[in-house]
Design goal:
The chain has about 240 residues and is mostly beta strands. It has two domains: about 1-150, Jelly Rolls, CATH 2.60.120.200; about 170-240, no CATH class. Helix content is about 5%, strand content about 40%. The protein contains two helices and 17 strands. It has helices at about 120-125, 145-150, and strands spanning about 1-5, 5-15, 20-25, 30-35, 40-45, 60-65, 75-80, 85-90, 90-95, 105, 110, 130-140, 140, 205-210, 215-225, 225-235, 240-245. The longest helix is centred in the middle third of the chain and has 6 residues, at about 145-150. About 15% of the residues are buried.
C-alpha cells in the first residue's frame, strides 16, 4: 500500500503500561507504530529516509499519561502527507513529520495488538498489547468486524476472543480523612504487604502498622513525590531503618 492520506481510529483499555497497539512497515524503510510506553501513548512514524543520511524521516510524538487505568480511551490518527493530527480522548495534537516524503509505503501486513518478529533489535524489546480494543477502523475498513467474521487473511495469531473480560481487582478510593483498617496476625513473625496506588498528591501516608508486644512499627508514606519506608524497632541499638525511592 502506498498512501498519501490515512485515517486510523480505535478504542482501547488496559491495565498494562507497555504494549504495541498497531504496527506496519515497508521495504523502503517506512513504518508506523502506535504503542504504550510507561502508560503514555507514543506514535513513531517514518515516511522515508535516504541512505546518505541527509534526509532523516523518523518522527516520534508522545501524548497522554496514566493510560493503564483500565478505562476506555479513544485514538484518531489523521494523516495528509506530512501533516498529522493525533487525537487522544478528544485532545488533538498537530505536528509535521520529519523528512521530505509524503507517502507511507507499507509492503507488509499491518498488525494490531503486537508486531511480528522481524529480527530487528527494536522488535524484541516491544511487548504485545494486553487488554481490549474495539471499533478498530483503518482507512474506512472496520477491522474488528472483518476479524470477527474471519474476512481477514491472514487473521489472528494466538488467543483472540471477541469479548472483554473485566479484571477481578477492586479499587479503593481514599479521601483526605478516610482509611482502611484490617486485623493483624500476632502469631506471625513475617510482615509482607503489596499494593498498587495512584495519586496526584505529593505527600501522604500509605500504610502504618504497629508490631505486636510493642516491638516497633512500620510506616510507608509519600514525601515530596518519593515513597519512603520507615521501620522502627525498639529492642535493638540501631532502632530505625529508612528506605527512600
Amino acid at each position: 500500500m502506498k498512501t498519501l492520506k490515512d485515517v486510523i481510529s480505535l478504542k482501547f483499555k488496559t491495565s498494562e503500561s507497555e504494549g504495541v497497539i498497531f504496527h506496519g512497515e515497508g521495504q523502503q524503510g517506512d513504518y508506523i507504530t502506535l504503542e504504550l510506553k510507561k502508560a503514555k501513548l507514543v506514535l513513531n512514524l517514518n515516511l522515508g529516509s535516504n541512505q546518505l543520511g541527509s534526509i532523516f524521516g523518523h518522527t516520534s510524538v508522545t501524548t497522554g499519561s496514566l493510560l493503564d487505568d483500565h478505562h476506555w480511551h479513544s485514538i484518531i490518527i489523521e494523516r495528509h502527507g506530512r501533516n498529522i493530527n493525533l487525537t487522544l480522548d478528544r485532545h488533538m495534537q498537530h505536528f509535521r513529520t520529519n523528512g521530505e516524503f509524503d507517502y507511507l509505503d507499507l509492503d507488509y501486513e499491518i498488525t494490531f495488538g503486537g508486531m511480528p518478529f522481524s529480527g530487528k533489535p527494536s522488535s524484541n524489546s516491544r511487548k504485545n498489547f494486553k487488554g481490549c480494543m474495539e471499533s478498530i477502523n483503518y482507512n474506512g475498513n472496520n477491522i474488528t468486524d472483518l476479524a470477527k467474521r474471519k474476512k481477514l487473511e491472514p487473521s489472528n495469531v494466538g488467543n483472540l476472543s471477541f469479548s472483554c473480560v473485566e479484571p477481578h481487582t477492586v479499587p479503593v478510593f481514599f479521601n483526605a480523612t478516610s482509611y482502611l483498617e484490617v486485623p493483624g496476625r500476632p502469631s506471625q513473625d513475617l510482615f509482607s504487604v503489596s499494593f498498587l496506588f495512584r495519586t496526584w498528591n505529593p505527600s501522604g501516608l500509605l500504610l502504618f502498622s504497629n508490631f505486636a508486644e510493642n516491638l516497633g512499627n512500620v510506616e510507608i508514606d509519600i514525601n515530596d513525590g518519593k515513597v519512603s519506608v520507615h521501620i522502627n524497632v525498639t529492642q535493638v541499638k540501631k532502632n530505625r531503618i529508612d528506605i527512600s525511592s
